[in-house]
Structures are given as C-alpha cells and as structure tokens.
Specification:
By secondary structure, this protein is mainly alpha-helical. It has 2 domains: about 110 residues, no CATH class; about 130 residues, no CATH class. It has a 3-stranded mixed sheet with strand order 2-1-3. Strand 1 and strand 2 form a beta hairpin. Helix 4 packs antiparallel against helix 5 and helix 4 runs parallel beside helix 6. It is globular. The two termini are about 15 Å apart.
Length: about 300
C-alpha cells in the first residue's frame, strides 16, 4: 500500500535504482561465487549479492559530493532486502549467517575499490525491526516536503496517507525522546542525536499532515508544543549540570546511528553544550569485516529478530 503513495518521490526512485540495477552476466562475478552454492533454494541471496557488487561499483564511480547520502541509502536498501526475505527463516542463526556472508562480500568489494567506499555496519543489539523503523523515519523526513505539497482534505489517496502518517506518528513519538534534546533559551534549539534518520525541527511533527487530511486519528495526538515541552530544558539548568548528568542528557546508552558514534569526548563538552549543544551519542559501532565472529561466539549477543506487523 505504501508503494502507491511513494511512487515518483525522490527517495523511492533512489531505492528503485538500487534494486533494479542492471547485472551484466557476461562479466566475471568472483565476489559472489561462494554465495552461489551456500543455499540452492534461496536464489534471492545470490541475486542480492550480484546487486550489491554492481551497486558498490557504481557508487564508487559517482563524482558528486553526496557520497555519505548515497551510502546511507545503500545501507537502508541492504537491510530492507534482508527484511523482505526474513520470513523464510525460522532460525535466527540461519538468517544471521546469510547477513554475515553478504556483509563479508561488501567488505571484500570495498577493499578492492580505489575510492568512495560504502561499508554496511552490523550491530549485534539492533534488530531488523529497528532497522526498518530507522529506514521508515529516514524516508518520511526525506519525503516530507513532497508529502506536504501532495495532500489535502479531498486528496484521492486520503485513506492510504492517513494510515501511513498514523504509523509514522507512532514511530516519531517513540523515537523523539532518544533522538532530540532541546533547550528553550536564549532561543529554542534542538540537538539531533540521530541525524541519519530523525530531524528535530518542529515542522516535521506529523500532526500537521494528519490535520491537513482531516484524518480520524488526529484527536489522539497532542500538539507540537506540548510534545516538545517534554524534551526541552532551560539553559540555566544546563549551567548547573555536572559533567556526568550532562553526558546522560545528551547521550542514550542504547542508541546508535547506522554510521557510527558521534560522541565528543573530553571536559570541553559542557562548554560546547552551553554554546548551543554539540552533537552526541556514545554507542560503539561494529564495521563488519572478515574477522567478525559468528553466532557461535558466546562473547557477542546476537539480536536480529524481525516481527512483521
């Protein structure tokens, strides 16, 4: 259903480009040769592997200044392909083995590219459900202005959009506390702790879109001012905060971004916050390489469960 309202949007077209990349079967595809015999009944794995190879090579040759954005799209696309096929695996470790094999391919290809590498990161404590939520939020913010210009109370896809924005509202409200930290004076300003997939500007709150469409669910949600009041503190309070409490305020120990840690270390953090809050998070990432341990290693907690709603 979401595909019907996404068609023509830039982020939708970008994913389509990644998914429909042309595979030249006449070329030697050595990177995926070990994937071919690993699971004869799962043709999607080999097909995805070939798409990964072709897309990474194309991304490496791009000459614009949007490399980080290209890689972020690639990461979300990668995990979306895994999610779409997760239903075929009842055993978590079986699916994890597939993920690790494909990540090994990504790592190997990147080592042989001369420029513009795009690594996909794996986190042992980030589930596929969470990857889906991050992607869905990322896409919502990317498409916000287009959504806003498309819709109205008599829009012929009102039902589909109301359902979508109601879903986004749920994700928005469940993520805003960990992704945004705001101060109210000398001027209102928010620290974005999840910059890859969450924007903290008030205008992105889905309430306005639900209201514009006159969706039935609009009465279930508070105003933007009430919501942001709950995550806003006075700058005078920041002046009195200890370093430990300040770190707690700007960092969520269970939060990470797809592209890694952004926590600034050192005693000058409090000073930076007073100057309008510095970006922050404190979670370590794992950039996959061939030495990453498999599920049999008890020292790693593997969490890749995915639950369809």
């Amino acid at each position: 259903m979401q595909e019907n309202i996404f068609k023509g949007l830039p982020f939708y077209n970008y994913y389509n480009e990644l998914n429909n990349v042309t595979i030249d079967t006449s070329k030697n595809r050595s990177y995926c040769k070990n994937i071919e015999d690993s699971d004869n009944q799962k043709a999607w794995i080999k097909n995805l592997c070939l798409k990964i190879e072709e897309n990474l090579k194309k991304l490496s040759n791009k000459t614009d200044d949007n490399h980080d954005e290209h890689c972020l799209y690639f990461t979300y696309w990668f995990y979306q392909q895994i999610i779409e096929n997760a239903k075929n695996y009842s055993q978590k470790n079986c699916l994890l083995n597939v993920i690790l094999k494909l990540l090994n391919v990504v790592s190997t290809i990147n080592r042989n590219l001369s420029k513009n590498h795009c690594y996909v990161h794996y986190y042992s404590d980030v589930s596929l459900d969470e990857w889906k939520e991050m992607k869905d939020l990322h896409d919502y913010f990317k498409g916000y202005e287009d959504f806003k210009s498309r819709i109205g109370p008599h829009y012929n896809k009102k039902k589909e959009y109301c359902k979508y924005f109601t879903y986004i509202m749920k994700l928005y409200k469940s993520n805003i506390n960990k992704c945004c930290a705001c101060i109210c004076k000398p001027k209102f300003l928010c620290l974005e702790k999840c910059p890859e997939y969450f924007k903290c500007e008030k205008k992105y709150y889905p309430y306005e879109l639900l209201s514009k469409l006159k969706c039935d669910t609009i009465e279930q949600h508070e105003s933007v001012e009430k919501l942001f009041n709950a995550i806003t503190i006075d700058y005078k309070f920041i002046n009195r905060m200890s370093s430990g409490l300040l770190n707690f305020f700007i960092s969520d120990p269970f939060y990470s971004t797809p592209h890694g840690s952004r926590l600034q270390k050192g005693d000058n953090k409090k000073k930076e916050i007073k100057q309008h809050i510095n970006e922050g998070t404190n979670r370590k990432k794992i950039k996959y390489d061939e030495n990453f341990k498999t599920p049999n290693d008890n020292s790693k907690r593997i969490h890749i469960s995915y639950h369809r709603t």
